Amino acid sequence: MQHIATAAGVTRGAIYWHFDDKGALFNAMMERATLPLEAELKVLDEAASGDPLADLREYMLAVLRRTVEDPGARRVFEIATLKVEFVDEMDAVRCRRQHNLGQWMARAERQIKLAADQGLIGKNVDAARIALAMWTMIDGMIRNWMFAPQSFDLLQLGKCVIDPYMEGLRAGRA
User: CB atoms < 10 A from the CB of 111, how many?
Assistant: First the structure.
């Protein structure tokens, strides 16, 4: 709290006047912030290519692009995923993460089921399992990139990972 007060040019008392504890301060910050996975959901919501798998691909690449190009979103994602312990007063962060996963799963499963209905992938696919694998790919790539952004090109790696995965889904439609 002292670091925040110093950076803001106020006393710790002023911070505590507005926030009960660091958890309340953090939660207020998170309410104002948009994470890359959330910010790009509109890509899926507004998708109209006629190819649900292509729309999912575009969404995943948009998330990676936002992570690379938007320092604010990247900073909030880094704090919320790499610098927070999900205990007690910070439980709201865990809850938000679960909410984001639920939103992703609903949208991704819808796209996967559409792809199955269109014959782009097998009819008997497990949409939930495929969606969770996609979430894990994106989330994992972003987290690892944040540890050392100079170590690899996130967008390039994203294409190298996402494209074969999507092609594999299409190839398994028979």
Answer: 23
